[in-house]
Amino acid sequence: MKTLIAVSVLSILSFGAHAERQSNEPIKVIEPISGLDSKKIELGKTLWFEPRLSASNTISCNSCHNIAKGGVDNLPSSIGHKWSIGPINSPTVFNSDLNFVQFWNGRAKDLQEQAAGPIENPLEMAFTHQLAVDTLQSIPQYRKWFQQAYGSDNITIDNVTDAIATFEQTLRTPNSPFDLWLKGNDDALTTAQVEGYQLFKDKGCTACHSGPLAGGQMYQKMGLVKPFTTDNPDVGRKAITGSDFDKFVFKVPTLRNVELTYPYFHDGSVWDLQEAVEMMADLQLGQKLTKEESTKITEFLRSLTGEQPQVTLPHLPPSTHETARPNI
């Protein structure tokens, strides 16, 4: 009986310590999402891989946000319609529903608004919303799927973007080694990763990179302490607000799965994660890290790689004689 009581007390104390760790740490656990409409998810997944939403019939959402590559394309800037080079690095779509705004400059308030943008962007998919809807409407299987998901086979751009956004919400990456450590598994991180996390906090990195995403919850100027030199012409939030105060101000990116989402920064100018760590400490915090410090912080960042989404490729339905032909 005494043994049972002792074990129970230890279990309670252990649970309390683990709960305290989760509540006290600036970076929080990523959890899977549930409760979404399965028909909308499946439809959204098909639309995610659908290149006929682009003028050339060759570019899909997955072209720039490849689910097999950390939700990015691993290019400094994405390649769009007729080999156009985009103006900015493609951010990951993994866990993106947890961002407080979408796009680097925050011009979209949520995933549905974000999903509408690339379709009409002349440098990306170079289509129009009406042509996209007409294309889907010309394919009987899509009309059937929209009927099942939305109760009507009259396809609208709002339903298109809602389905895509619903699918995107499923692209969570839970159970990273760091998440397991937060939940109480002390063996989930190496000694170097634990020390790297402590350095990450001590150096001030969590001032911007906190919450479930280790980022994605605020804007910050790129080159806060020292100027950031780049050939990229993007001015950040200034393009939205018109204010010089917002020049080179961008949404702080998530550090979840960051070892997979190279090259780094809005201009995609840095390919090595440790180099990116050292640059950020210098430009944003005014600190020169030793190689040992940057190595440990980099090892910690690798612990933020979670379980990657397991997505089965859909079979796209055939076009009809009414479906728009490619504009190559």
TrEMBL record:
Residues 308-328 are annotated as: Disordered. It is found in: Periplasm. It comes from the Bacteria. The keyword Nucleotide-binding does not apply. Binds 2 heme groups per subunit. One of its GO terms (cellular component) is periplasmic space. This is Cytochrome-c peroxidase. It comes from Vibrio parahaemolyticus.
